[in-house]
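Problem: given the chain below (520 residues), write out its structure.
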Amino acid sequence: MRHCCLKGTKNNVSVSEVDDTLNDSDMNTEKSNEACEGHAEKSQDDTCTTSEEPVKTGGKVRGDLKPPRVLEALSASGLRALRYAREVEGIGQVVALDNDKGAVEACQRNIKFNGSVACSKVESHLADARVYMLTNPKEFDVVDLDPYGSPSVFLDSAVQSVVDGGMLMCTATDMAVLCGANGEVCYSKYGSYPLRGKYCHEMALRILLACIESHANRYKRYIVPVLSVQMDFYVRVFVRIYTSASAMKNTPLKLSYVYQCTGCDAFHLQPIGRTVSKNTSVRYLPGFAPVVPQECSHCQKKFNMGGPIWSAPIHDQEWVTNILSDVKSMKDRYPAYDRISAVLTTISEELPDVPLFLSLHNLCATLKCTSPSAVIFRSAVINAGYRISGTHVNPLGLKSDAPMEVIWDIMRCWVKNHPVKAQPADQPGSVILAKEPVLQANFARAVASLSKAQAKKVARFLPNPERHWGPKLRAGRQITSKHISLLGEEKVNGCLSHQDSELDAKRQKIEKLEDAPAES
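Solution.
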């Protein structure tokens, strides 16, 4: 389960990723489960109306912002919509949609169960989310898309239903497709071809962002990523959507193809477009190509090409820092505080302008050498004059603006101090080590080799909260013995015994009907 918590203030609306875990006691004690009232109290309504008196700020006259309207396009039982209404201060209307009659009925029961606040703010509809969003263009400040699987069929209508400057929150759980298990399926759904590198989960984020941008561009709109997270077994992105035909022209500058060497960890990005400025005019031109030769200059192997992906920053670092400080100041309000702060802390320390990342273990596997510690490797990169950071996607991932020539020179120097066994001459590692390093690496420990969070020993990657943690079965699927790895042996056996008892009851009922004498 996934959930987002909005924090509404007078001047802005911000969003942070939180888990869907709620203590039942908190839900019961915070508000009484009173009967649904016909009208909300007048005092409550007064706090949610727009001020009629204009306010002057910076020479411009404007009115106070209205409470944000939220659309949860695939609401199921309405849990998230109810949390928006009950937990977000100053929130306006929350519309919960689902095209399953049983789910809508369950949502309406839950609305009544949660009292007058939920009744006054949450409304549930039986509707196709795509049709509803298309017939309500630019109506919602926040649109939340969280389907089971791919969100691609909802994106075209979703980007049209968000107000200018509003936020689209989108989840994709089809990670096998996005990470390269079925490249042709990914291309048909997202318009991008994935590569199976260690960075595949970050590439999944960037493929999703590129897909959303593509849909937005068709309506002279563009996206600005605020937060992009890969965690557990899904990816979730938070993007603001704006309308501007001129700013939309910059999209090719934000997209790139990826060339991944089949022999070593080297990868290169090929921007789709470029600009040429002359006086006050700007010309948009195709990107220069190719950025790589036919064979890898390090190991002499071929390249695979993937993309296009979003190669611009995927986070707003200032926004992430502010949200992190807000979460810390209200840590008692978040049951999943440790998990939220761990993810946001790691994201706040990422290099924002470096797409994808390297795996230190993969570099060493290519050379068949022992691995240096992350601190030693990071120090060597820093001493060479480049930047390096971790990534929230992989505890072993390292983002750096150092070119691959420098990375391999550092590894060559490491291998000289830690010799390896002789390998066949045609192996990628042998070809790389056959060259002498141009850069003499300095492995002396650098001050910045540890991030602030690491220096303070702040937890950044937490274990799963329970066994068999992960995506469960799609609704309606029959549970069999092959699902033990997903649900656990005890639950599967319980479900199977329940199914057997139901079958026995049906069989006995049929036998009684067959044995009963026919009526004359």
